[in-house]
Write a structure and sequence with these properties.
Structural class: mainly alpha
Strand content: under 5%
CATH superfamily: lambda repressor-like DNA-binding domains
CATH topology: 434 Repressor (Amino-terminal Domain)
GO molecular function: DNA binding
Organism: Paenibacillus antibioticophila
Shape: globular
Pfam families: HTH_31
Protein name: HTH cro/C1-type domain-containing protein
Distance between the termini: 23 Å
Length: about 90
């Protein structure tokens, strides 16, 4: 199953930080904070974001965004090695 970050989900819906903050009546800094690290996102905010982005929670990566990018980079390297072996 694929996973995406909250930032990717927002961008996929064509929304800016400012638009999301306005819709949810939160500050831009709050939305940005949880896009950078969703480890401790409040449940009510998460539910609101998932509804807005129209993404099921099982498709969202939870944790620091930098860890997600490290995971993807690592997976791409492993995939390249696997493809080279074929």
């Amino acid at each position: 199953m694929f996973k995406i970050t909250l930032r990717a989900a927002r961008v996929n819906r064509g929304l800016t930080l400012e638009e999301v903050a306005g819709i949810l009546k939160k500050s831009v800094d709050t939305i940005r904070k949880y896009e950078k690290d969703s480890s401790h996102i409040p449940r009510d905010l998460l539910v609101s974001l998932l509804k807005l982005y129209q993404v099921p929670d099982e498709h969202i990566f939870f944790g620091p965004e930098s860890s997600f990018h490290g995971f993807i980079h690592s997976a791409c390297k492993d995939n390249s090695v696997l493809q080279a072996a074929l």
